[in-house]
Amino acid sequence: MRNIKLLIEYDGTNFCGWQRQNNGRTIQEEIEKALEKVLKRPVKIHGSGRTDTGVHALGQVASFKANITVPMDKIPLALNSLLPEDISVKGASEVEEDFHARYSAKGKKYIYQIYNGPLRSPLLRNYAYFVAHPLDLNRMQEAAQYFLGSHDFKGFMASGSCVQDTVRTLYKLDVYFHENLIKIEVEGNGFLYNMVRIISGTLVEVGKEKILPTEMQKIIASGIRESAGPTAPAQGLYLAEVFY
Amino acid sequence: MRNIKLLIEYDGTNFCGWQRQNNGRTIQEEIEKALEKVLKRPVKIHGSGRTDTGVHALGQVASFKANITVPMDKIPLALNSLLPEDISVKGASEVEEDFHARYSAKGKKYIYQIYNGPLRSPLLRNYAYFVAHPLDLNRMQEAAQYFLGSHDFKGFMASGSCVQDTVRTLYKLDVYFHENLIKIEVEGNGFLYNMVRIISGTLVEVGKEKILPTEMQKIIASGIRESAGPTAPAQGLYLAEVFY
């Protein structure tokens, strides 16, 4: 039995997210179906975490165990020939027996993209959040600093989540212009449900001057979901990298 | 009667090209339908040129005449509220009576995007040409020089076209890496049918070392379509700008 780690890119637009479900096309199901064709038996894969409907991945990681004789460097092409066009396996490697894509993850990097301009961009409609109101990048950058370090991010979690420990550590939260986009790049040891989208939605409120950067500390400390900004839409979010 | 110039961006993926036709969704038809709703009467618009199925535009230009009282700066938002998400009017201005988007055009700029890597990218599948074979950028740049200036581009025109004068002048043909893409940026006083896609397809053959850069001169001079490379696929092509 070998333990295999896959690196996966996908366009989340036409998926009902990562996790297999009864109704709706999911990334997990497509990959499991392709693996079953290669291995001639059902295989269950474990993702580093779920992504929601419309969320993209540049570097999702999944792992599975199988008796597989195909050389590792042949796996991506073999799977891609069976996968739909909106998923691509970008790498495969054999890992230690106890490696698990989710439980072994030490951290993650997400990128959130905002298209800020007076008129919407058709080419970016599925790949960035369109904000027509001019955003003040300096204010967003100032506000971002308050998120760094370890905090109880309870107020930045989708209501209804039932995680016990809501303390997470962010190592990086950069906000910058890149070509015609504002990018929010976040790295941390873990993320609560919708956390990056709520942080992004809150930074957009700061950019619109509806929230002062200096209010961040109080908003985070409050632990109240309603104090933070709205959840920014799914299509701007990319799971960029998983750290092990 | 005012003469109006529109600047238009679109994602060509789900269109059967620019030009109105009986079967199939087109950009021209969508804009004419939106204009009709605003102006309460049918309007015919003239594009700077057609784009094919799957071809995108960052800066397509169209013109039309109408008795319109809406201020110019309100037109983009008014039209966008009626247009589907894959089209956006990015600007509107009043122009001289004799302006015509097609006949007044002095030149155009196109960008052709290639994703060159071992494995396909789902996020770029509709926005770049995926070439797995490693491309030699230096050779492509060397070959590009031969296209500059005035040439009879008969060999770089889709067979079946019935244009009389096939001489065109290219002012610019830059090939460069940008992030994870190879971009081919072309400016000229006019383009034959499929010309940019055939030039791009030929440069890809050069990048694969199937054609020598120094053969370009002979291939162009031959005027034979079969001497040039294949027509690169539509999804890599962007009409970037029209010059007046």
UniProtKB/TrEMBL annotation, chains A, B:
It is an enzyme of class 5 (isomerase). Its EC number is 5.4.99.12. Formation of pseudouridine at positions 38, 39 and 40 in the anticodon stem and loop of transfer RNAs. The keyword Glycoprotein does not apply. The gene is truA. GO terms for biological process: tRNA pseudouridine synthesis. The lineage of its organism: Bacteria, Bacillati, Bacillota, Clostridia, Peptostreptococcales. Homodimer. This is tRNA pseudouridine synthase A. It comes from Geosporobacter ferrireducens.
